[in-house]
Amino acid sequence: MQRIDHVLPWSHLGSERKVSVFRFGEGERKAYIQASLHADELPGMRTAWELKKRLGALEARGLLNGVIELVPVANPLGLGQLLQGNFQGRFEAGSGKNFNRDFVELSAPVAAALGDKLGDDPHANVRLIRQAMADHLAALPEASSQLQGMQRVLLSHACTADVVLDLHCDAEAALHMYALPQHWPQWRSLSAHLNVKVGLLAEDSGGSSFDEACSLPWLRLSRQFPDAQIPLACLATTIELGGQADTGRAQAEAYAEGILAFLAEQGLITGEWPNPAFEPCEGMPFEGTELLFAPHPGVVSFSRKPGEWVEAGDEIFQVIDPLSDRVSTVCAGTSGVLFAIERLRYAQPGFWLAKVAGREALRHGRLLND
Ligand SMILES: [Zn+2]
User: Fold this and answer.
1) Ligand 1 centre and the CA of 224: distance in Å?
2) Domains, the chain, with CATH or none
3) Interatomic CA distance for residues 239 and 281, integer angstroms
4) Which of 42, 53, 344, 345 sits most deeply, having the most CB atoms within 10 A of its CB?
């Protein structure tokens, strides 16, 4: 194992922050796994430690067939953002920016750099494109903030990988994952290893999140150069490993084992690995996800649990105003998987309280809520 420490720019005077990458194995193929880009989403960090121990043992036994890079603490900035005992890990405090938005878009600079060099050899194209991506990131002007510097470090390791897993979690949730629709057939096995309850599929959710910054340039380039053989060579996903409180040891061990079994199927690890313990879940259009809001302030009582299938018209929660005695019942508007609910039981204006993944497209344009 090699530990690569990247010192981030723009630390406050007298302090220093680093992003540490743990690199296992060697070879042409590569998987990249990072955890807790939203710093208060810790199930991924807990899982990453299980992965770290196991990857070290696999490497020592010579069972790795490629490189696996692991970043267990993707966001040291956010980890420092505690306010009176509460994490503020989703948005950078100084700028208000979401840590998982606005990663560098790589298809346009790669197209400009390569243009007529892309031909009918897919392997040659993959090598050229990865090199051009790395070159572009390395040649950017100095980062103008610590957030930007951190994002570039993460993307520079991930954009040359065949498989990218970005481990997040939701508030209270069943496991779910985001990916390109074109990649869903390849992800079904991972969903079965991890007991994921729904795949949310979109070509472009808007916002240039980390997984799409890795996977989407290949789709864009393949469309921009239809005569060249450009595979969708970066299989990237955001996996929401349940809810924020789901840091249990048994869960983390099971997630690590499932991820390693999937990487073995992808050819990155040899040896005997168990078949998936669950059925693959359904992939649904991310445009079909309904966000449910409260109609007024009040205390929230949920009627259903994350992971359950709900029908359109089913009660999902009630909002109660004990001063006016106003009680509102909020129902699902679509049939689908109730995959996440809010942790806070107080209704605020503009904040979602439940999310249901349905099969029919309901929303268009920017799909990510912040
Ligand atoms: Zn997240």
Assistant:
1) 31
2) 2-280 (3.40.630.10), 286-358 (2.40.50.100)
3) 13
4) 42
